[in-house]
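User: For my dataset I need records formatted as: sequence, then structure tokens, nothing else. Please produce one.
Assistant:
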Amino acid sequence: MALDKNKSLTQNWTTDKNYEETANRLIKNFILSLLANGSKGRLVVESATSKRDFIFHKIASNFLSNGMPSLNVKSEEIQDVLTEISFVTKKNLDIEEQIADILVYGAKLKLLGKKVVNPTDYDKNVIRIMNQKLFKMDPKTWLKKKKYYSEMKSFEILP
């Protein structure tokens, strides 16, 4: 997920709107992946500010309370798969947060595309790894999983 701030400005998105739309898509994709895999998971958010943390909490709570009516997913189904929401800081030194930071760098390089002048071997490797980690639906995927996977976007530029 990437945000083109220049495009968001032309659509009169505020900083809060940028954050809300990004958080909504991230949380929705995470829940969809849990539903498709029949697994349980916890949402770990790197704490930013109380206002931004509240946005993540509000959006997750909305899914937990209302489900996803457009996909006929009841709130109870989401409550079964999304087991926890926690906020951590960089001071935790969680490996997951550090890996996410590296992949965000790869996403930025991918977003810049041909504008990257003389990418280093490190840059090329980060882009390659990030591309390998992007979700791709197997053509043999069961119909029930396809219902959820087809709603996911592995790399999306907002707005």
